[in-house]
Amino acid sequence: MSDIDRPPHDAPSDIDRNLIDELVSFYNGALQLINCSALFEEKYKAVFETHPTIWRAYPELLVPEGKSTVESVLAVGFPRSVDIISAPSGSVRTLLIFRTESGLGVIETRGGTALSETHVSADSERALLFHQARHDALTGLPNRRHFSDQLQTSLQLLGSGRLALIQIDLDEFKPVNDTLGHAAGDIVLKMTADRIQSALRQGEVAYRLAGDEFVVLQCCDDQPAKAERLAASLVSALREPFMIDGINVFVGASIGIAIAPDDGHDGEQLMKAADIALYAAKNDGRGRARTFNRSMLVMLEQREMLRRSLRVALQEKQFFIEYQPLVGLSRGIVGFEALLRWHHPYAGVIPPALFIPMAEADGLMGKIGEWVLEQACREATTWPPHLIVAVNLSPVEFLRNGLTDRIAGILDAVGLPADRLELEITESVLLERTTDNLDVLNTLEVLGIRIALDDFGTHYSSLTYLKNFPFDTIKIDKYFIKDIQTNRKCQIIVQFIIELAHGLGMFVTAEGVENAGEASWLERKKCDRLQGYLLGAPMPAEAIRDFLRQSSFVLQA
After folding, report:
1. Residue 435's pLDDT is what?
2. Could you say which of 231, 414, 429, 518 is the most buried, measured as most Cβ atoms within 10 Å of its Cβ?
3. Do the beta carbons of residue 517 and residue 534 sit within 8 Å?
4. Rounded CA gap, 377 and 391, in Å?
5. Are 340 and 321 in contact (CB under 8 A)?
6. How far apart, in whole angstroms, are the C-alpha atoms of residue 207 and residue 223?
7. The predicted structure's pLDDT at residue 203
8. Around Cβ 456, how many Cβ atoms within 10 Å?
9. What phi and psi values does residue 63 have, to the nearest 5 degrees?
10. Is 370:400 a contact under the CB 8 Å cutoff?
11. In the prediction, which pLDDT does 9 show?
């Protein structure tokens, strides 16, 4: 059993002094061994050869008196002492049996001495402190302190075997806390721990490191195949909804796998490899597992190079904007969406999906976003006066104080009427600070600025957003449009969104329109605006005048 190790060096001094050199063991409600002191592990090595239980460690307790003592402690909770006699030698040992949160604890002492209730209680409290210092109070799993020592011990004893470190991170845990509260978040964490435990087999131990981070250690020779099978089952188990107060909550998990000794000979190296693999899993779309390989490290190093370059990109004027047309089915071209681009001096054009999350994480998106907004509004003043400009507003920008003042200042500075600016926000913005968000959106509406809800249907998609927030336009994500001609479910969803928006007095824009068949279907369903390569690819500002002069869109069914 791998969930056995020594107390942490930074454990309380009374635990170190009193328990490291004692025979202490802990058992769950099924009386299976879950933790013990190093001395116990050394003395009872044979116990770990098969499924270790209290009866395997102390078969003398199988007699009626021993069984009744164990059952009494489990049922009543008061600590008890019992003397047992070893069959071969006839020596007497005394067991102090006490209740813990997860089951029972046992301290073995030399027998033949009567123990007072005070002595029993003091020893059981010390042993309980030892247990609590090494276990997470919320989930009951071994904690980070416990994990660090066990990882070091396992690596030292690895020999010719292989050790898998399986790092688990919940994908959508923060929205649970933000929308349902921390009590609901605690329930999700407990249920997560239970699901992880249920998937484990002999030689596999789960730990909670912090927050929504968990890890499993798995010792076996068949690696990484066995770790990947376990990771797949964990992803599947955590994909199922959690029921919280009658609400189905979907969280999901991403997993990174690292194998010792291939990916690291010490705990720090192995954790770094698992972190990189976990990052790759999230970067590939979340809800999946990835096993570390060297190419991931190269990619991460490249990303770090880009991250460093990003800090000077604005000053060195490496950013530029392309504009993609928005076409109204009844009015032709109604405007353009401003799309940020980055031309790196050595790497070429960097996709926005790669660098925008970096900019947000590093606190750079505020300045970049201001530049995009001012530049796009300035360009729009050179267009025909009926055309709008749509600008994406990242969650980081939206949550910055003084947003409405900055936007109003930019519009005044460049001379663009407010009703020619459409700000696009995603549903994820609305998960944070709901009251403040409503105030911001209402202020923007009062200023006359249009507001579009971007990528509708791909995030949390609560209809309360449409009820509570003042949107002018809903944008249907290209995920639903690409199969619109053949997928009946996509057709029903898109038609529902169009009818819902029109019923609420909102316009609808369909993104990712690539062919005439999609455009014709959307026209029949009275979608207001189309956007996609069929209507026009993103173009530099200087190409817009020629595009307007040459464009003519006739989209008949």
Report:
1. 67
2. 231
3. no
4. 9
5. yes
6. 20
7. 73
8. 25
9. -70, 155
10. no
11. 32
What's the alpha-carbon Rg for the chain, to the nearest Å?
31
Q: Following DSSP, what letter does each residue of 154-185 receive, concatenated?
A: HHHT-TTS-EEEEEEEESSHHHHHHHH-HHHH
Q: Give pTM, 2 decimals.
A: 0.57
pLDDT value, residue 89: 62
The amino acid that residue 506 corresponds to is: M
Fold of 317-475+506-513+527-550: TIM Barrel (3.20.20)
Q: Rounded CA gap, 44 and 410, in Å?
A: 75
Short-list 528, 546, 549, CA closest to 450: 528
pLDDT value for 15: 35
Task: Determine the distance from the C-alpha atom of residue 67 to the mean position of all C-alpha atoms in its chain, rounded to a whole number.
Answer: 45
Q: Would you say the C-alpha torsion 65, 71, 73, 76 has a positive or negative sign?
A: negative
The fourth-level CATH superfamily of domain 13-133 is PAS domain (3.30.450.20)
| φ, ψ of residue 549 in degrees (nearest 5) | -70, -35
3-state secondary structure 428-477: HHHHCCHHHHHHHHHHHHHHCCEEEEEEECCCCCCHHHHHHCCCCEEEEC
| Helix axes of 144-156 and 267-283: crossing angle, nearest 10 degrees | 120
Judge whether 56 and 50 are in contact, CB under 8 Å.
yes
Query: Which H or E run contains 494?
Result: helix 488-503
CA distance 27 to 53: 7
| Domain segments of the chain as ranges | 13-133, 144-292, 317-475+506-513+527-550
Domain 144-292 has CATH 2.60.40.790: no
Residue type, 547: F
Q: Is 224 exposed, middle or buried (0-12, 13-18, 19+ CB in 10 A)?
A: buried
Joined tokens for residue 190: 């407990």
Torsion, Cα 116 120 125 127, to 10 degrees, reads: 150
**8 A C-beta contact, residue 46 and residue 69:** no
Residue 74 DSSP SS3: helix
User: What does the alpha-carbon distance between residue 319 and residue 370 come to, in Å, rounded to a whole number?
Assistant: 12
Distance CA 321, CA 540 (A): 7
Residue 539 confidence (pLDDT): 95
In this prediction, the residues of the chain whose per-residue pLDDT falls under 70 are 1-21, 49, 87-90, 110-132, 431-435, 457-462, 464, 552-557
User: What's the pLDDT score for residue 513?
Assistant: 94
Helix (H, G, I), strand (E, B) or coil at 53: strand
204-210 β-sheet, strand order: 204-210, 213-219, 163-170, 253-260, 289-291
What phi, psi does 291 have (nearest 5°)?
-100, 135
